[in-house]
Amino acid sequence: MRHVSILFFFMIITTNIFSQTKLESLKKKAEQGYMDAQYVLALSYALGEGTLKDEKQAFYWCQKSAEQGHVDAQYMLAQSYVLGKGTLKDEKQAFYWCQKSAKQGHIDAQYSLGIMFYRGKGTL
Asked: Where on the tree of life does the source sit, at the highest rank (predicted)?
């Protein structure tokens, strides 16, 4: 039983170290301007995976990725503006980013854009 406990403890420590190394590597790539790394880093901060949850950092990296044309980041950014996660609520910005994502074929963005038009949110 003692061996199992030691093995379990070792696995927890190595998983944590691996997560930190992975996050550091991801952040380095994001800082170098890789939009996919920026998006994954945004998700990591938004979900608290491998790091503490941080909505402002999630928003920051999501915006960086979205500005480079990452379709999923554009939709995530639109949702951030709708919900006020990591930023202030802003219907016009939500509409803008949802529209950019929808034009690239993002199905959820297309649906959300239809709802925005129907409700008149951010469209004026």
From this structure: Bacteria
**How many domains are contained in the chain?**
1
CA 42 from chain centre, in angstroms, equals 4
CA 69, 72, 77: angle at the middle one, nearest 5?
85
> Secondary structure of the chain in the HEC alphabet?
CHHHHHHHHHHHHHHHHHHHHHHHHHHHHHHCCCHHHHHHHHHHHHHCCCCCCCHHHHHHHHHHHHHCCCHHHHHHHHHHHHHCCCCCCCHHHHHHHHHHHHHCCCHHHHHHHHHHHHHCCCCC
The pTM of the full predicted model, rounded to 2 decimals, is 0.83
Residue 111 lies in a domain: yes
Query: What residue numbers bound the domain in which 93 lies?
Result: 2-119
Cα angle value 106/110/114 (rounded, 5°):
170
Q: pLDDT tens across 11-35, in order?
A: 444 445 446 788 899 999 999 999 9
